[in-house]
Amino acid sequence: MPGVRGGPGAAAGSSSAESRGEGCSKCRCKAKERPLSLDPHGHGTDGLPKVLRREEEWLSEGFSSYNGGGMNGTSTMMDFLEEPLPGVGTYEDFNTIDWVREKSRDRDRHREITSRSKESTWALIHSVSDAFSGWLLMLLIGLLAGSLAGLIDISAHWMTDLKEGVCLAGFWFNHEHCCWKSNTTFTDRDKCPEWKSWSQLILGHGEGAFAYILNYFMYVIWALLFSLLAVLLVKGFAPYACGSGIPEIKTILSGFIIRGYLGKWTLIIKTITLVLAVSSGLSLGKEGPLVHVACCCGNILCHLFTKYRKNEAKRREVLSAAAAAGVSVAFGAPIGGVLFSLEEVSYYFPLKTLWRSFFAALVAAFTLRSINPFGNSRLVLFYVEFHMPWHLLELVPFILLGIFGGLWGAFFIRSNIAWCRRRKTTKLGKYPVLEVFVVTAITAVLAFPNEYTRMSTSELISELFNDCGILDSSKLCEYVNDFNSTKGDDLPDRAAGPGVYTAMWKLALALIMKVFITIFTFGMKVPSGLFIPSMAVGAIAGRLLGVAVEQLAYYHHDWAIFSGWCSQGADCITPGLYAMVGAAACLGGVTRMTVSLVVIMFELTGGLEYIVPLMAAAMTSKWVADAIGREGIYDAHIRLNGYPFLEAKEEFSHKTLAMDVMRPRRNDPPLTVITQDSMTVEDVETIINDTTYSGYPVVVSRESQRLVGFVLRRDLIISIENARKKQDGIVSTSIIYFTDHSPPLPPSSPSMLKLRSILDLSPFTVTDQTPMEIVVDIFRKLGLRQCLVTHNGKLLGIITKKDVLKHIAQLANQDPDSILFN
Predict the structure, then answer these.
(1) Quick one: which of 334, 382, 379, 372 has its CA closest to 354?
(2) How far apart, in whole angstroms, are the C-alpha atoms of residue 406 and residue 427?
(3) Strands 707-712 and 679-680
(4) Is the preceding omega at residue 664 within 30 degrees of 0, hence cis?
(5) pLDDT digits (tens, 9 = 90+) for 15-53
(6) Residues with Cβ < 8 Å from 312, sequence gap 6 or more?
(7) Sign of CA dihedral 246, 248, 253, 254
(8) How far apart are CA 293 and CA 271, in angstroms?
(9) pTM, whole model, 2 decimals?
């Protein structure tokens, strides 16, 4: 395989691409020697002395030695790539990696280490450390991801409360922590003297219309300040830090390279702006962006280990595990995180990655638990315990919630994609700061009057999941109490009091607001997750339905549907459970998750005995949403952005052949090829300059078109540039040959350049009559960049991953030119 001795692979998210000038482990050439036609983002200066030393070694070892000669042995030539060349075997930005080549390189590296381990004790230690490095990397990712998640949680909680007031005992305390040491009664625990609202601080009192207006004004001002700061930081320092990041991570894990997307600037800015965006009160969550943050940690820490720094396929195994750690700290759900990575984001997920993902998620969850960001000794803000089992007849309202979740998911995806497409194709996309300002202003103005939209979305979900107890002071729990019928902690179903009816109206208004404002919020140029807003919509709908069923059972307990299991004075219906099921249904409708969703939900809430209702709702919402539109929100955004992602779940059922898709088509110019031993350096450079292809087939001759192999454009450029500088006698008329032995040439010929080492001698080929469903399967399962098409052993054409995607789009009556990363 080519590139076995090649340099390190281009980072999926190397921070060098962010034009900050920091070094990276890619092609470390001297600035003045860097070829102009190469992507400048792939170069750094941090490893320069090492490269210089290596170049001196090449020179001292007889750089211009004779490896053969012309007719009379006077022409000098060499296999220039017998030693590793920096940059050879790497990839340019916005290109797809070659999974087959990367796995082959890793197998060769492993064989070499294993064979050397028998030679000496030091080699054996190196072999053991190499085997252990993967687990050490998982440990570091878990520790860093857990620490950052704890920092984000604590900061967001404090800044959210800062919009409403400040703690006199210490401004760094949030409202809850401020009142911990207060001597106030349980019912007045939110009114401790240490916590002052802005009107109390400025006016000296918190009552009256003017105090309300001042608090309203301060709330809106803080919200605008936080959101504007977030969008300005994203725009100025790390444009890739916006959005949730999951569509791009899915694309990167499928083998695409987006340099800078997982770099250190993106990590720093995303961490800061995520806190600001969540604190601003916008209808977004931090769970999706936490997956991006964890993957940034994984990518950056990969640079500490040569095995992962130099191999793109191995790096993607690490990123899959990092995604699991991200969900683990986002929801406090380690097992759900592993399943989420497997079901939703990963493209290649071997058994070894499953174990390492489990370990990374475990370490991340343990780290977050040690930090205890919520002060409740739990991993999540909304841990609940329900006391009553569910009844079989309750599956009917649970399935109704599933239908609602599917309808909401399909409606949200269509509306959000339409809005995002409008943003991309109109002037709206040129004013991201103004868009964030307007959406934040509308959100803050509408949110403040309603206590359920004013509080953070996580707190809202926590309150909706809550099972009302005797001491609950929430309006949702203002029932008409009959203490004579109370048994222990369990309260019977009771008549709703005026507080409950008020809360229902406010929740209905909050539901309408969340449904519509989330459409415009997701996709703005700030970090924005979708898990929490989707769960909030479902939790509100579920709580409303739960209270309705509860009151129905209370007033009509003699009806046939209730008589068998819900007698008067019994605790039959748990509205909090309906909220939990509704949250799962809406999240499933938007993301189309099933297994991982159910596991995340029961880990999130501790409701292990409610797996069946959760499964019923999740499955129903997926069926309903799939009936309206097949794509989940992340797949829809991948298609909107034109990322070259080949969906493994989709079936290809059309009867086309490889010859229908390959290039060149009829009436097209012939395929651009390089001959194995008859083209000069100038000929090859002309081909490179006149075309933009990422690689070229190598044939015996233009007449025979018999295939020899495939060579990458980037490898050719680097090899020719370095040969011109380092090898004596290489000029424009020098012959390039890819064979083992040099072709016979006249004595006066200039030196020849042997480039066999960069030639892929086993490119994947199919015949022109191969059905496209087989070709698509090959691309999916082997992760190919391109596939050559032959007829009776002769080269006919080439099919690239982009050709396959365009063909699928065309057959689905979509614009084939949309498959172009922009």
Answers:
(1) 334
(2) 32
(3) unpaired
(4) yes
(5) 333 333 333 333 333 333 333 333 433 343 333 333 333
(6) 9, 10, 12, 91, 97, 102, 255, 257
(7) positive
(8) 7
(9) 0.83
